[in-house]
Amino acid sequence: MFERRIISSLRKWADSSHRKPLVLRGARQVGKTTIIEEFAKDFDTFLSLNLEKKTEKALFEATDTPEDVLTAIYLLKNEKKKAGRTLLFIDEVQSSKKAVNLLRYFYEDLPELYVIAAGSLLETLIDVQISFPVGRVDYLALRPCSFSEFLGAIGENQIKEKLLKCELPEAIHSRVMKLFNEFVLVGGMPEVVARYAENRDIVALRKVYDTLLNGYQDDVEKYASNKTERNVLRHILKNGWRYAGQRIKFECFGDSNYKSREVGEAFRTLEKAMVLELCYPTVSTDVPLSPDLKKSPKLLWLDTGIVNYAAKNQLELFGTQDISEHWKGKIAEHVIGQELLSHNDSVSTQRNLWVRDAKNSQAEIDFVIQTDRQLIPVEVKSGHNSKIKSMHLFMNESKHDFAIRFWNNSMQKDTVELPSGKKYTLLNLPFYYAEITDKILKNNDIE
Description:
Elements: H1 6-15, E1 22-25, H2 32-39, E2 45-50, H3 54-61, H4 66-77, E3 86-91, H5 97-109, E4 114-117, H6 122-125, E5 138-141, H7 147-153, H8 157-164, H9 173-186, H10 190-199, H11 206-223, H12 227-239, H13 260-272, E6 276-282, E7 298-301, H14 304-310, H15 314-317, H16 330-342, E8 352-355, E9 364-370, E10 375-380, H17 389-397, E11 402-407, E12 412-417, E13 423-430, H18 437-443
Parallel strand pairs: 1-4, 1-5, 2-3, 3-4, 6-8, 10-11, 11-13
Antiparallel strand pairs: 6-7, 8-9, 9-10, 12-13
């Protein structure tokens, strides 16, 4: 087990005077159970249930009150009630609708008990087969490891510490970029990262990647509501990886004969499972951000390492000096998208891009970040400022004067003057700072 940032969020939840039962959401194999077992070390008593086990599910089916359930759990686990804090972890909670319904009563009747629920199929069942008590539970999202967590896993803790403070000296830029390129190749799935940390051998990870991919394929039978959806899901999970970072159309996706409605439904199922995200564009340059769901979305998978393996892109990336030169820059864009989300525990957070609302215009910005007052454009491109024409168009229309570009070089701040006479600040950041973008915006007084 290596350190995961979400532990601090779990501790904040535990310390809150308004704490409710917590639902921990995330794709399969992002480490939910491992995280809770690590977090449980903060408690005097840890009670863990898996409701896929009949005897443990029966505890909820046979009673109607949290007090009786808790007593039955102590008896089943042969545990004695002790003074101090008790954490109850209910895994695979979706296996029992009654357990889901009882979460609200844990909140009302046993507020001193710390309750966390999770489940491998939870995401696809929410709002369809089960309904969590509105206003009676909290949510946190667990995502793949960020670059800083990767650094901690491989023993680069000094670099990790400086990175999170945005204090990396320019003298070690090349070394940090080399480590970041390793991260891009390996990805952030916890088991993959842990295995890689043992011997730094990318070839030895093939079985782990295969297990992850096979697991998602196996889940198709559980996700799908009918045969057609099952077939479309299989098609996406087999062929969709090579479209990572690209804008897609549902109709005939991946050279198939499937219709737009069928493909759209399958994508939304996988999106609920947090295996991927459909990143929709906005045409506005100012807040509030309003995605246009009629336009083609960009396909972002949960992890760049899995993309590289499934799309057979590892050899091309191995030993690269600049990730933006490969795969038409889509891998660089994809990993930056992953990093922008890595420090966000909110389940509802979504990423967006920008397209210009003009006839025959091809102008497009890779990502936009909404702050309280501004919509910040984010480009992922190396090279001269003349290569970011879409950025210039965005900033010419925008009311503010700040933009971000991620690239292969060290940090640099430029003042760009547009033909219209408007000037704006372009903050060029090395790829490895993407996960702390929010902190960098605050450091630059961007609200």
